[in-house]
Amino acid sequence: MEHEHNTGRRIGGTFLSVENISLAFGGVKALTDISFDVREHEIRAIIGPNGAGKSSMLNCINGVYRPQQGTIRFDGQAFQQMDPHKAASMGIARTFQNIALFKGMSVLDNMMTGRSLKMHTNLFLQALYVGPNRREELEHRQKVEHIIDFLQIESVRKTPVGRLPYGVQKRVELGRALAAEPRLLLLDEPMAGMNIEEKQDMCRFILDVNDEFGTTIVLIEHDMGVVMDVSDRVVVLDYGKKIGDGTPAEVRANQAVIDAYLGVAH
Amino acid sequence: MQFFFEVLIGGLLAGVMYSLVALGFVLIYKASGVFNFAQGAMVFLAALTFVGLQEKFGLPLWGAFPLTLGVMVLLGIGIERVVLRPLVNQPQITLFMATIGLAFFLEGVAQLVWGTEVRRLDLGLQDEPIESVMERFNLLISKFDLVAALVAGLLVAVLAVFFNKTRIGRALRAVADDHQAALAVGIPLKQIWAIVWSVAGFVALVAGLLWGARNGVQFALTFVALKALPVLILGGFESVLGAIVGGLIIGASEKLAEVYLPSLMSDFLLKHYDISINLAGIEGWFAYMLALVFLLVRPEGLFGERHIDRV
Amino acid sequence: MSTQTGPAVAGPEETFPRLLLAHAQSRGDRTAIREKDLGIWLSWTWKQVADEVRAIACGLSALGFRRGQTVAIIGDNRPRLYWTMMAVQALGGIAVPLYQDAIASEMLFVLENAEIEIAVVEDQEQVDKMLEILPKYPRLRHIIYDDPRGMRNYPDQVLLAFEALQTSGREYDKSHPTHFQTEVDKGRGDDIAVMLYTSGTTGNPKGVCQTHSALIAVSRGDIAFDGFSADDEILSYLPMAWVGDHLFSYAQALVAGFCVNCPESSETVMTDLREIGPTYYFAPPRVFENLLTQVMIRMEDAAPFKRRLFHHFMGVARRCGAALLDGRGASVSAGDRFNYWLGNLLVYGPLRNVLGMSRIRVAYTGGAAIGPDLFDFYRSIGINLKQLYGQTETAVYVCKQPSGEVKLDTVGKPLPGVQIRIADNGEVQVRTPGMLKEYYKRPDATAESISPDGWFLTGDAGYFDEDGHLKIIDRAKDVGRLDSGTLFAPQYIENKLKFFPHIKEAVAFGHGRDRCCVFINIDLGSVGNWAERRGIAYSGYTDLAQKDEVYALVKECVESVNADLAKDPQLGGSQIHRFLVLHKELDADDGELTRTRKVRRGFIAERYQQLVDALYGGATHCEIEAQVKFEDGRTGMIRADVKIREARTFPAETAQRKAA
To answer: Under CATH, what is the fold of the domain C285-475?
Structure first.
């Protein structure tokens, strides 16, 4: 990164805090007493070896999993449990580890679905595609076009997503999440399975999103190097427990992290 | 030759009637990936309700239609509430089983409320040849069949626009593609399902009226759904256009087979093998045989999505 | 505007800014330029363009830009960049478009050479390159960018947003209301309008200085030759630094007044072509080839019925398409004519539509030889594709094929106002209205290229055929001889090889040796597809290139070229004896190709000395290691064991048919 990405970007107060979260499936403990916070406008990474509970953590934040204990505080409101719809309507958007796009639909349509919650005209009026509904549709389309331009996917606008290469699909999924104009963006391994070039592109997009829209980002990543480059602070999980938290430099120097993660060849 | 065309056109128009029923299946399959076994029961229920309302309250056509439509919409919403919502995230086979249960329930309720006797349904359309066509081309084309075909064509056009151009359509396709992802982007899954089932109810109503007017409203209407099966296999479960084309092919080939095949076959067998058999009733099984052949050649159907696995 | 077209001459007062203002005045409400942005085609009328240009020009003046200075223009084809060209010229300055995909160090040379102080660039990608250059070239005072994305936190001392430039320009205009018109009025036809850097196969690029008069004169000649008018539409997608685009999207557009359309991005060109449906099209053979490859790959994947239909009607088209296009319909049987009509309905029409060529009246190709299959394909489906010949130094105004007189292996007849002579060594020398004024700051090179009696020495070897068409065979300096004294034209052989869709590049060796041998680059798309269909697994280019099956495929191509060469009375002795498939793709970033993608034979021979030795030493394989430069600027090593194979040769027809 030639240009320090966080110059001029002001990081605000605590935006999301996760307090004493424990989650178990049957007898298996996935997360044990996890607490950390995310500040407004920051890029926060959750890292850890495979099976450390990273995805479970993300799924608790957006309500796919319901933790047995603990509280999630988002934008001043406390929740024992979230549910996906409520999370979405509060401005939490996410991507999935194994791309969950609508494969048979075009890139444009996929991204338009991202705006579902921003659409206000009556569901039944929509069927008629007239009046205020038509105007609203055009406004949404314009917003989506900006994101298409931002992510440089103009050339595949009308292509069914299923026909696109993996790296581009990842980008479209990011686009669909951005279409919701989220305040908090959860990225589940945004760079998994990509080659070096695609990873660099994705890094640039993540930084640009954070920079241009001021979006707070929580991302899970397996690849340490990438995380250290893009994130402001890092949480390290291992076997469902938090073993480190701090700036990339601090985390790198943390002995527990080195033992648990950096020591593991991968 | 003229007789051939008469048979062909008659078959095509009858095929449209199959398409109508198949459409209901396609809608629900597209939106929820479930083969709705209860579609036939819905056709029956719609037709019976319509006739029942007419008889009991002396309602005219234009009065009974919106009322019945209201019943079908309520039914759609009810099905989502009572049957689908508790079954979210269950395997598809579970949902399929639920629709079988639903089918028996609907048949039972319909007969409980409106009785079991066969009723006549009069839409004011006569099943008689159109005179102008007869004079000019010397062809016998049924007025009823033609109107039914026009209605079906209109319905398909409306559905195509609905699916591809509107926001609900887009949401429907999204839900059909991936439930989880649809939830995560904030698409209201419950509303969407209620809408799909209501639309399927509307299609069932149109199909029920046309079939009922032709064959009388009776329990046998539920079997019409079985005829939709080969149509779906030919056209593909996911394609509205496929349902139409599949219906036309089944309708036309069935009629042609019925008229020409028995004599051709028995002549052939008699001449070469000295076997004499009676092939009457071929229209009863010909469609299924065609579907079977199709399954072997092109299992995804004419318009279904071809799933290519690249290595 | 009938006064605009005519013979290839230009008045002494004619400049591009004056042409712009004339259009704005006489037909100000017609669309001058379009651009697709955010999924929508935006358009500007001539009047609006004139206003924009005025604001840019005044903005540049506010920055202290003066007559005779240069401005670098770098980016994809954007309206604002074309307008900047006009604005620079309005102030009597010289526009210097650069290839947008050049790396920073290559750009540095041009900036220094052209003494550029202001660069107008498209986006962050180009700004990054300029900022990289800045410490080494502090003379660069201003970097003006069109698209601000990603640059919010960039240092702003040298950076200036395009909007800010225009805003300050409008203010400057208010306080100096006569400035713009005065500057335009000062312009003379023999002012240098643009400097186009030619990459050249050796040495540093040279700035070719072209005047307003020359460019206007040749545009007028071109327009008259093919009957272009203000009603034509083109899509501008070729690099702005290439003389082809400069004439096509700038000079001819301003002279004829036709509408220029800028694609959304370089990846969307196919879609944009289809949406615009241009009437006039110009592309190097490579672009036509890529289009055809895409069509063919799609056809291979199509259903069997469709594929059969396609092949059947393409057969019909090959038989009679070109004849019908050239108006020689009388020689075509009624059956074929019906077949072609049917084919047009079912195949050619839809195909032209997919290619975005439904409305094409005239299409040109030039800059390199075009393959017979490729050329025939487009002509047979009813696209009037023709060849032309020229170079940056002649403003591409030397030869063109007249409609109805199209031949595969010639570049056409001399254009009106052009004289051609063939020197004793076979070199083509020309006198044209499009002659360069000079190479910038290179009197030596200028003297080398223009003879004392005023002829431009093209450096190409060629001759006129019996119909008066010019035929180019190779670079004059590259035409060599084998040990035996047989003529050896490497490019001629390479081109014949490259005409096979499976072969992307070829490099022929033979001068001063006993026989001809070649390096081959396979086409990854085409051969990859071929391999997939045969179930041959491969992990990438290097792996695929060394498969025995691929060698067999290439061998067939080589031998068919040999069979062809054997028929040529002069080149029959230079058939290919041995070949190898290179382990990596030749790349401009590695210096193996020029920016216009011509092979740099000498450089390659030096770099792969080991392989050349193995070819001539009789080895059957050779291990090699090579450094490659990735797109992100890092370098890495590729190691491979390259196989070498023999090819069959044919007895040459030495009979002197020509003498008869």
So the answer is: Rossmann fold (3.40.50)
